[in-house]
Amino acid sequence: MLIGSPKEIKGQENRVGMTPTSVRETKHHGHRVVVQAGMGAPIGFEDDAYRRAGAEIASADEIWARADMIVKVKEPQASEYKLIRPGQILFTYLHLAPDLQQTKALVESGAIAIAYETVTDDRGGLPLLTPMSEVAGRMSIQVGARCLEMTSGGRGMLLGGVPGVPAAHVVILGGGIVGTNAARMAMGLEAKVTVIDKSLRRLYDLDLQFGTMMATRFATVDAIEECVLDADLVIGAVLIPGAAAPRLVTRAMVKQMKRGSVLVDVSIDQGGCFETSRPTSHANPTYVVDDTVHYCVTNMPAAVARTATQALNNATLPFVLALADKGYARAMKDDPHLLNGLNVHRGSITYDAVAEAIGLDHVDPLKAIGTSGKSAG
Q1: Out of 3, 282, 292, 326, which residue is the most buried by the measure of CB atoms under 10 Å away?
Q2: What CATH code would you report for 2-119+307-375?
Q3: The model's pTM
């Protein structure tokens, strides 16, 4: 199989779909790889390193035109829609539920679109979302602490306080991978931390892990409102796989928050969990609503692109190899967790949460790939 990895064109996005290490491993499996010239240079992966690993260097247009499978990081941008070919495999983050334009474009393309964020594992986790969730969770505290500074429009608070002065109150909505990593960072900086989750089992696990260093609350409207209004920094870390994020913090709550408090919405890729959230970029990461600073960057890990790329490739490489070695249809029939990543297949939506969010018909993924015959893969 010919695997292509073009440079990301989303603003301030320097992560890459394949590192030289991934290229070498893919070549070892007997496949060909073509990457875009200069793709990894900003994070220290030079073209010569890709050549030594066995990759061919080409332009973006050539990669899209030739590759059987495209391995990326972010969802295709509008200017890339026309480059996607019928039958081409697209393996990347997609986040389709809040993005009708992209969903329709992928349906019309006739491509096979596999989303990193809906691939599962036998423990009920999301292994291709986990590394970026770890990065984003840890980053959320870094950026939140910066946003609390006066120069960013915040309250002028030091997250951990100092002797004789209270620490900031950090409220984290969601106790999953993002929330847990955010909590670890916040506690490490000696902030006061409260985690809110709807799973009593998850709250129990967090209590066992962190004990009295962290407060936990069961998610109710009352609990969310009480904690948000007391918070100096709120981290939105909720996720329903493949679906739009629930809006847990209303505009009315935001209006009542302390002047200069901060909202960091890590759920923004799935539409955001604050009613006042709207996507921002690394170039213009924040805005203010009712005297509350909002940070809603849709590709937070891009700010630490080298670390994020290496973490992501560690997770995606086994799936890239399975798709290339077996062809996508056989790989998915052999692995139901990879099958869960199939969002769009040759004109049909094959992930139920996306179909429900977009209001389009859903086709069972096994039935979809079963009709592909020998052409699949």
Answers
A1: 3
A2: 3.40.50.720
A3: 0.85
